[in-house]
Amino acid sequence: MVQVQSHVMERAADFAQLADRLERMASSIEETKDDATPGKLLQLAEKTRGAELNIAFCGHFSAGKSTMINTLLGASLLPSNPIPTSANVVKIRGGEKAARVYTHNNGVLTFDPDTEMEKLKQFAVDGDTVEWVEVSYPGTMLNEKASLLDTPGIDSTDAAHKIATESALHLADVVIYMMDYNHVQAEENFNFTKTLKDRGKPVYLVINMIDKHIDFELDFDSYKESVEEAFATWNIEPDGIFYTSLAEPDHEENQYEAFRALLEQLIADREKLVSKTVADAAEHLIEEHVQVLRRQNAAERQELENRLDELQLPALDSRDAGRVKNALQTAEEAASELASRVDKARKQMEKELAALLDNARLTYYSTNEAAEQYLESRKPGFKMGLFFSGKKTEEERARRLDVLLADFREKVAANLDFHFKELLSKFPEQFDLRDEAYHAAVYATTIEVTAEFLSSHVKDGASTREYVMNYCSDISNGIKTEYRRAGLGLIDQVAALIRKQTEQESMALQKQLAVLRELMQIHARLGQLSAMEQAARQRLQAILREGA
């Protein structure tokens, strides 16, 4: 006995804890513009706190739902006219006799189930002013913690009826889906049943009015097989199928008693069933809330997506965020390369020019010999012959200068000038440029080796062999300096051409970058919207699963 009491207390504590979490979930989304989900969560919390079992009857208005419920309860509590009977959800539970009508504007109205049932039934069909009808009645299979929900017919032309049905499904632990024998394979049956199964609801199908079956047209086993195949085609696996007749209780195929036994077993397993279905319902309400957020964001999301379609670039799917990101990265790298292209090109050309000048050999043995002779003629006291020595001396000096000049010019022309012009003329081609004026300027470049140039590098008092080597090095470096100066000037011209080319490319690239950056901003905002929706889902799931 003590163990049973302890188990009951533990179960009650579990339901109370789950109800608290549901209330916290409702509170956490009250500040959003979701007007429906918080109320549903609070309804679910109230149901959970009492571990109340709700068995919802859904289906065609002509399938006999109300008659079936009255028969199961042994009392005429619901209207059963051949017209849509309920515009609202009617809840019937066990307990002391009571009837309440929850209205939209006039609060809760109470009725005596014994004397005012007809008036109550009129409220059941009034969908404009009534939100919910609840009846308590003793002496049935139901107790205070077990209820049957009669929902409006799903095939009603009144959209409010369908909304009323769907708005109560979060409270349903089990759904009994009733169909008229002649309307089983209506598409709305498959659609609605699949929706219920996708929500994780236990669904039992009741094919009512089987007394309409004519056996010689089709044997009943074949009929049942066709029903099962039809639902299997839609990938629907009901938890059970019952074939019933209230008009002919003794019909040999009537499974009414088995159906009633199922309901009694469900009621007996109330706590186990409720603990699972409440959690499933809460998960579905989380998804409903996320869908509300998505609808709230729909206009902005659509505007952003429309803008994505407007911003088109060749060979790029603007809706593919990954490809847009890669394209932007590539374009930014190209922009960075453009920004540094002139400096890189200049450094590259200067490096190649320096390598050419450093490797150009301008003085050989003949040059050294001519230089030694020339430098000797520049020494003080140098003279030729005994007679007319002044004239002969000057002539010899001039001759030696001419020899050195001719030798050095030859070396410069062959070992430097030719290669210099060949190198400089090819620089534009390295950068996909053509410019005839520049090409002509390269070949028009003249660096003249003059007598003055040679004499300008002579240092007074120099007379040793070592100095001859130094002198040759000086005139070699000196002429290279002149070529370097001319080369840098030509490189400036190429750099200017590259700069002009780069500016044109940069203008086109900047336009592309502007588009790509806007695309990325749009994708970032779309990502934010999705992230906010996902964060809301995760926050509610954390409360539900962990109480966090």
From TrEMBL:
SUPFAM superfamilies: P-loop containing nucleoside triphosphate hydrolases
Listed name of the protein: Dynamin N-terminal domain-containing protein
Keyword Phosphoprotein listed: no
Domain (Dynamin N-terminal): residue spans on this chain: 55-208
Hydrolase as UniProt keyword: yes
Example GO molecular function: GTPase activity
UniProt KW keywords: Coiled coil, GTP-binding, Hydrolase, Membrane, Nucleotide-binding
Compartments where located: Membrane
